[in-house]
Amino acid sequence: MSSEYDRPEGLLGVSLAFEGISDAATIINGPTGCKSYPAWFSEHAFPCRDKECYTDVPFKYYKRSFFTQPRVPCTYMDGDDYIMGTGEKLNEVFEEVMALDPSLVGIINSPGASLIGETLKLRSEKGIVVRIESPAPSVPLGVGLQDTMIRILAALPAERHEKRKGVNILGMSVWDLHWEDSVADLKYLLGLCGITVNTVVGAGCSVSELKNSGSAELNVIVRRDLGLEVAKWYEKELGVPYFESKMGAPIGFDALEDWITGICERMNADPTDAMKRIKEQRERAANVLLSLYTVHKPTVGHTFSVVTAGPIAYPVMSFLYSYLGILPVAVNTGSDRTFDDEILRFIKENGLDVTCEAFDTPADVMIGDGNSVSSAISRGIVTDGYDIARRGRTIVCIKERPVFGLGGTMCLLDGVMNALRRMD
Q1: 389-422: string of b/e by CB count within 10 Å (b at 16+)?
Q2: Rg (CA), the chain
Q3: Rounded distance between C-alpha atoms, residue 246 and residue 375, angstroms
Q4: Which of 32, 11, 134 has its CA nearest to residue 78?
Q5: How far is Cα 127 from Cα 105, in angstroms, rounded to an integer?
Q6: DSSP calls for 132-154
């Protein structure tokens, strides 16, 4: 069974590149079907923005371009527009959006609009406008997101800086589950090292922060699939080098330590305080696990599967196997191939029998996006699961619940261990 039909695709990535900027607005030139989910997702993933672009009173956005959703209005393209074009509607929607005073406007052709050659012309262009006339809906989300972020950066008056300070975090987006909590966790750990985070590109940043992002001393990547091409653009165009951990996203004690120490080596910073904090949490986790062994509740021998992007799947798989002794039986990274070599090498070096058919391979626990976990549980493929990626199940999270960083590592341990305990 394949779930590729349910994977996020390039067009969503294009819209989320704009929607991850706090004072930007997005217009889709297309029918309402192309706008409904991106608008819903943006509203729920990033409700607290710098400017008045969001409200919990939907009737403020009663106009037909918004359809009561505060994010991502569209030109509601219909039959006649495929013959006459959407020029008049596009200009009307643009004026409505400019009334919200955004610092940047992204205009995206839907696949249907791009097929008939809509050129996205405006009668009176105001401010910074980035047009995406031919989005690629069949590519992975990360490709569309990175291509668009590069287009955005190229449209801003950014320049090279001789004096540099701090870092930018790349490879995160509002698509990431609990992205705000992960950002806070990573900023905290880097702060313990005396490193300032200038901006998190594409995840809650402002247009002003993007304009000044070329002043960073280093770009640090969290997820290769969402940030590597953007990092290469910064290095080529603005002279900002980048760092990427060979272990993937900073989740799991070893991967997190590798991420922190690698950045500190490049920045000539002291990781002592961050390493001390990680050690404290290692000891806390070890004490809890030891107490389980004393009452004959070991984790060794249980099985798990992983369904998420490669830069997350690899550190999660290696961490759970090496730290808890539970066996990976299936790893499915979908259309993302960015960490396949590392995943295959780990499987071979440890003599594991792992398939890519996570949706047909029985396991005790599945770690992945909420839809995949729910589907596998309902079909009896797995007994329980832990959500580590969008789209999450309906779980209320009032306290912080990061996916990356030290907090993300402890939450992963909590989620997996409690899933295994529920099996008893």
Answers
A1: bbbbeeeeeeeebbbbbbbbbbbbbebbbebbee
A2: 22
A3: 32
A4: 32
A5: 8
A6: ESS--TTSBHHHHHHHHHHHHHH
What DSSP state is assigned to residue 302? -
Q: Is 157 exposed, middle or buried (0-12, 13-18, 19+ CB in 10 A)?
A: exposed
- Any idea which residue has 């006339």 for tokens? 133
Mean pLDDT of 202-220: 95
What are the tens digits of pLDDT across the range 237-277? Answer: 999 999 999 999 999 999 999 999 999 999 999 999 999 99
Longest dimension (CA), the chain: 74
Q: Phi and psi for 8 in degrees, rounded to 5?
A: -65, 140
Res. 283: pLDDT tops 60: yes
- Average pLDDT over the chain reads 89
**How many whole angstroms separate alpha carbon 24 and alpha carbon 329?**
43
Q: Which amino acid is at 22?
A: S
The DSSP 8-state label assigned to residue 85 in this structure reads -
Closest CA relative to residue 133, chosen from 259, 30, 22: 30
Report pTM. Answer: 0.92
279 pLDDT exceeds 90?
Answer: yes
Q: How confident is the model at residue 1 (pLDDT cuts 50, 70, 90)?
A: very low
Question: Computed from CA positions of residues 136, 248, 405, 366, in that sequence, does the dihedral angle turn out positive or negative?
Answer: positive
The pLDDT of 177-200, averaged and rounded, is: 97
DSSP strand pairing (128-132 vs 104-109) = parallel
The rounded distance, in Å, linking the Cα atoms of 391 and 80 is 35
